[in-house]
Amino acid sequence: MRWRNWPVALVQYLYRGLFPSRCVVCGLRGAALCSAHAVFTPAPVREAAPPLAGLVAPVAYSGAAVPLLEAYKYTGDRSLAVVLAAEILPKFPPEWTPETTLLVPIPLHWTRQFWRGFNQSALLSRALAEATGIPQCALLRRRRRTQQQARLGKAAREQNLTGAFVVRKCACSLPRSTRIVLVDDVYTTGATMRSAAGALHAAGYSDVFACTFAVAV
Ligand SMILES: [Zn+2]
């Protein structure tokens, strides 16, 4: 835990003490989702547009997935990241191995991360990395603070994200043949993922996939 995250960690600690694990939909005590609500609608088939090579996303953004992701974004609760990862993992192609693949979370701009105290994509990426042994790396940096995508129309979303991501020089001097799997919580128009994949392509990584918990329907 970095020092600047301590207020968030404290709030999470107190919150968990006051409100032990409850279903995020109905509030039943016991787990983050009760057995009645731990049921998700399978994602519709959605082709990822170039420069993405493909999309792995198990769940439709509807029903219990909506309050689950809201609770996750609001609290940054790691136990919820594990719930999301458990849905994604059976969809991981077998060729995504620790030797060939790298998980890269979609970054927030540092000012947004500072105020929020965590990056929900990085927590999910970490949960996936811990379960699979596939390494993860913060290979991307958000160059400028973009407007919140939800408030913009489709054309404006693409415009908003042009040049938003920069590829960091990675200390592990990654071969350019490494398969990159971009991790985020939800795939809406795909504009964010395509912008990030475009930056990676420009840096020489040509095999870039998107992986999210949910897909907008
Ligand atoms: Zn419930």
Task: Please tell me about this protein's structure.
The chain is an alpha/beta fold and 217 residues long. It has one domain (38-215): Rossmann fold. The chain contains seven helices and seven strands; from the N terminus they run αββααβααβαββαβ. Strands 1, 2, 3, 6 and 7 form a five-stranded parallel sheet that branches. The protein has a two-stranded antiparallel sheet with strand order 4-5. Zinc ion binds at residues 23, 25-26, 28, 34, 36-37. Zinc ion is lined by residues 23, 25-26, 28, 34, 36-37.
What is the total tally of β strands?
A: 7
Helix coverage percent of residues?
Answer: 25-40%
* Category by helix and strand content: alpha/beta
- The radius of gyration is 17 Å
CATH architecture: 3-Layer(aba) Sandwich
What hetero molecules are bound to the protein chains? zinc ion
Task: Output the CATH topology.
Answer: Rossmann fold
Q: What is the top-level CATH class?
A: Alpha Beta
Q: Estimate what percentage of residues fall within beta strands.
A: 15-25%
Uncertain parts: none
Order of helices and strands: HEEHHEHHEHEEHE
DSSP summary: helix tally: 7
Counted up, domains total 1
For the termini, the CA-CA separation is: 35 Å
Q: Describe the biggest sheet?
A: 5 strands, parallel
Question: What's the overall geometry?
Answer: globular
Mean pLDDT across all amino acids? 86
Top keywords for this entry?
217 residues, alpha/beta, Rossmann fold, 5-stranded parallel sheet, two-stranded antiparallel sheet, 7 helices, 7 strands, globular, binds zinc ion
